TrEMBL record:
Name of the protein described by the UniProt record: Glycosyltransferase family 4 protein
Location of the Glycosyl transferase family domain: 183-350
Highest taxon of source: Bacteria
Chain coiled-coil ranges: none
Protein species of origin: Symbiopectobacterium purcellii
């Protein structure tokens, strides 16, 4: 088959981008030809993918995305594909990979009347409706059951169009693939004391991922515990305001920011706890990467994959509505009881060994090509 993939931006360190690339490569392994339409591509370009840079301009994202969609539709008329797969919501898709939350629900919960009058709202609402409306045939590759209820509430989408995928963690993230001694080596290279309590947060978009919440939780720790903490924040974002906040909270010496990195497994091997108190998160692949690395997790309930932390008994889930005090208490309790962290870590490894957290790319490729009727 000729399969066209639509993705606004590719960069190496995003969860959505990693999923896109793993699914694209699974399609290639199954013998299909893959064409990718992007506005921008950062990093190495795989030779087995046909990458097409869409030439669009516009002051706002919604203008650029509208023109991207129109250009791609025109190109597909001239160069047809057997399947069109979108990793962003847009018209004309056969499959949509649902890594994002329901926009209509987000607007209902967070925005006021005047926001609904903006061009931005009208564009993204129309593009979401073009995917989920009952009178279109797009099928949705879903990551969690939690997402489905919101889309059905706003669009009345038919059940048969939702296809649930297993997670897709790369096997090289698993604890038994770690280089021997990597924990000690990483800490030595980063000048982190062996007896330090290392907290880790990974993810682009620091605001949505709740980095401010994490900083406040670290600052709330009793002084003797707080002095032992080193907090590593990894992700593609501007850290300035968070560095300023860390200074205001008196913890700037314990917080280190890193841009997106390819050695996140080493960070996880060196850490004691992953913090992920996100404001919203459709799934949260980093949560399962932590589990497979044997790293305990403290996460907010809004995250789609948070239920895995509960099921694995590999950390603590902070209930909704969010309470900063609850996060503070959870972090204090976890760091104050090393036997709890050890127990969570053992549970995480067991879960990584006994659950299917790995087969998403192959399953998605089979569904896209029609070889798996679900």
């Amino acid at each position: 088959m000729n399969i066209a993939f639509c993705l606004y931006k590719y960069f190496p360190f995003g969860g959505l981008q990693r999923d896109f690339l793993s699914i694209a490569q699974a399609c290639v392994r199954q013998g299909h030809r893959v064409r990718v339409y992007v506005l921008s591509w950062q990093g190495e370009e795989p030779e087995n993918l046909e990458i097409i840079l869409v030439p669009t301009v516009g002051i706002s994202n919604n203008t650029r995305h509208q023109r991207y969609s129109e250009w791609v539709q025109h190109h597909l008329q001239l160069h047809p594909a057997d399947r069109v797969v979108g990793f962003n919501k847009m018209p004309g898709l056969d499959f949509y990979y649902a890594a994002d939350v329901c926009y209509a629900e987000k607007v209902e919960q967070e925005k006021g009347f005047f926001y609904r009058l903006t061009p931005r709202y009208k564009h993204y609402a129309a593009f979401e409706k073009a995917v989920f409306s009952p009178d279109v045939k797009t099928k949705m590759l879903m990551l969690t059951q939690r997402q489905i209820a919101d889309f059905k509430k706003h669009y009345g989408t038919q059940d048969a169009r939702f296809l649930i995928l297993p997670p897709g963690i790369a096997l090289d993230r698993k604890y038994d693939q770690q280089t021997p001694g990597v924990r000690q080596t990483f800490r030595h290279v980063q000048n982190i004391p062996e007896n330090a309590l290392v907290l880790l947060q990974v993810g682009s978009d620091f605001k949505r991922k709740g980095v401010e919440r994490s900083l406040r939780a670290v600052a709330s720790l009793p002084e003797d515990l707080r002095k032992k903490v080193v907090f590593l924040v990894v992700g593609q974002d501007k850290p300035d305001r968070y560095q300023t906040l860390a200074g205001q909270l008196g913890i700037d010496k314990q917080v280190r920011f890193f841009a997106g990195r390819s050695d996140v497994p080493d960070f996880m091997a060196a850490a004691d706890v992953l913090l992920h108190p996100a404001h919203q998160e459709a799934a949260g692949i980093v949560l399962l990467e932590a589990i497979t690395a044997g790293l305990p997790v403290i996460v907010t309930e809004v995250c789609g994959y948070a239920f895995h932390i509960d099921k694995a008994q590999a950390g603590q889930v902070i209930a909704s509505p969010f309470s900063q005090e609850a996060l503070n208490a959870a972090l204090h309790k976890a760091l104050g009881q090393t036997e709890t962290l050890h127990h969570w870590s053992e549970n995480a490894r067991h879960y990584a060994d006994t659950e299917d957290l790995y087969s998403l790319p192959e399953k998605a490729a089979l569904l896209i090509s029609g070889q798996d009727r679900h």
